[in-house]
Amino acid sequence: MKKNTWLPVASHPELLVGQYIVPNFVSNSVAIQVNDNEFILVSPGASLLENWPKEWRKPDTKIHIIMPNAWHFMGVSAWQAAFHNHTLYASELAKAKLIAKKAFSENQDIVALQQKQPPLPECYQLLFPPGHRAGDVWLKKQTSDDTSTWITCDSFLNYERLSNQPIARTLQKILGAAPGLKMSQVVKWLIINNKQAFKTWSLNQLEQDNPTTLIPSHGELTQDDQLKDIIKSVITSSL
């Protein structure tokens, strides 16, 4: 996928994905169009601001910014400066951690997603996977009666190849982070603090949702009718 450019997702006209590098690793931002002047952004990268469509830069444009955990905030300040009509969101746990690490102050009024949610399109809903020490938030889009789209945070990586950057490449090999859909050692060591709670929840959610599209926070989007089985295999072999 081309970097620093917003690209549409096949069969999802309201959904855009943009990739950026931070630091040395591919990360994803997601934009969901609510209406002509209102958008929900998940983990927006600063470098993606330059290529945000001009027709969506009106003075009255409203931006809802979701920080999907306590580590995904680095590009937020750039979007805040560009769009004064904005609201910040995070899970209750992520909000507390962001304030504790002084990434934001209590005066900046981060909305806790368990208390109030942005105006998601009707087919979308938030998911709060248990067992995550940084307060992860996922989004689900019900794409048909029996399939869905998952927009996840750091639980899964999907790098199509090992990095060309020597340090990143070495880390990917050591940590089992590439190539393909993975749950790296970093996830098990740093992201998840209750493996059994997450494993039980995620396997149940898989059966319920049958995702056929996955947009992880890092790596490539994947669309596959067998995706549920692929994710299930990754979870059961990793946890």
Distance between the termini: 30 Å
Mean pLDDT rating: 90
In terms of DSSP E residues, the strand content is 25-35%
Number of strands: 15
Structural class: alpha/beta
Main sheet summary: 7 strands, mixed
Q: Key terms for this structure?
A:
seven-stranded mixed β-sheet, 29% strand, single chain, five-stranded mixed β-sheet, alpha/beta
Write up this protein.
The protein is α/β, with parallel strands linked by helices and 239 residues long. It is 25% helix and 29% strand. It has helices spanning 76-82, 92-100, 166-175, 185-191, 195-209, 227-238, and strands spanning 6-9, 12-21, 26-35, 38-42, 62-66, 86-90, 111-112, 124-127, 138-142, 148-151, 157-159, 180-182, 211-215, 218-219, 222-223. The strands form 3 sheets. A 7-stranded mixed beta sheet has the order 1-2-3-4-5-6-7. The protein has a 5-stranded mixed beta sheet with strand order 8-9-10-13-15, with no helix packed on it. It has a 3-stranded mixed beta sheet with strand order 12-11-14. Helix 5 packs antiparallel against helix 6 (227-238). The longest helix has 15 residues, at 195-209. It starts with 5 loop residues before the first strand and ends with a helix. The model has no long low-confidence stretch (mean pLDDT 90).
SSE arrangement:
Blueprint: E1 6-9, E2 12-21, E3 26-35, E4 38-42, E5 62-66, H1 76-82, E6 86-90, H2 92-100, E7 111-112, E8 124-127, E9 138-142, E10 148-151, E11 157-159, H3 166-175, E12 180-182, H4 185-191, H5 195-209, E13 211-215, E14 218-219, E15 222-223, H6 227-238
Helix pairs in contact: 5-6
Sum this structure up briefly:
With 239 residues, the chain is an alpha/beta fold. The chain has 6 helices and 15 strands.
